[in-house]
Amino acid sequence: MPYNFFAIFLLFCVSIFSQPLSVEPKDYAMPIKEAESWVLRFVHPLLLRHSKDPNEIEGLRKRLDAFITLSDKGVICGYPAPFYHPVKRNTVAEMSYFPKLKKPCLILFVPRAMDIQKLETAEKFENYILMAVAHEMIHYEKEKGVTQNGPQPTRLELAKAEATAYGIVILEMIRPMLLRGRKLADIDVLMSNKLRQFKDDINSPLWVTQFLDYDTDKWNPYR
Ligand SMILES: [Zn+2]
């Protein structure tokens, strides 16, 4: 069961890649029960299905499987947030450290995910959510455990981390999915083409530059 449902009336968590988040009930865009039931209806079965499908793209399948396996073991948790990201409203998911639970949690910002569901076809929406979870699991792999220790990363360090995570998603998921004719959100196709301009080098300084605003609301794929 990837999503442990628990009520946190004052959520305070430390993101590895951005400012500490502080959210109060007045910031909720929907009742917590609604966010939970939406995740149970649309996200939970989707993740289970694709993590168990031997025909799924390997780079995607293994990250989804890691999320479910580590959640089942209680190493990480999933949190269906009934609010938008307090700083970056367009963010759909984020891996953050929850001091109260003493573990990293993959936060799914449910109001934002529901907005995307309205904007995209069912197939594009599903692929977007699958890759959002995989993207966060790449951060988990890279940051080994995700803790609250360590200094606040610089803007360039944040950009590098996003350039790497997004780059891996493109090379290991987006490209193979497009080859199979799967339909993806425009932003993913656009970013995939952009990476080609830098010869698929995910460490290229010019590729990293694309992500300097990633931590702000300026980086909005749906604007
Ligand atoms: Zn990221």
> Terminal Cα separation, in Å?
34 Å
Largest sheet: 5 strands, mixed
Counted up, domains total 1
| Strand content bin | 5-15%
* Low-pLDDT residue intervals, each spanning 5 or more residues: 1-18
| Approximate shape | globular
Query: Widest sheet: strand order?
Result: 2-1-4-5-3
**Mean pLDDT value:** 86
Radius of gyration: 16 Å
The total beta strand count reads 5
Helix content: 40-55%
- What compounds are bound to the protein? zinc ion
- The total of helices stands at 7
Order of helices and strands: EEHHEEEHHHHH
Structural class by helix and strand composition: alpha+beta
Describe it.
This protein is α+β, with helices and mostly antiparallel strands and 223 residues long. The chain has one domain (11-209). The chain contains 7 helices and 5 strands. It has helices at 32-52, 58-72, 110-119, 122-143, 155-179, 186-197, 205-209; strands at 11-15, 21-23, 77-81, 93-98, 103-109. A 5-stranded mixed sheet has the order 2-1-4-5-3. β1 and β2 (21-23) form a beta hairpin. α4 (122-143) crosses α5. The chain is globular, with a radius of gyration of 16 Å. The model is unreliable at 1-18 (pLDDT under 50). Zinc ion binds next to α4 and α5.
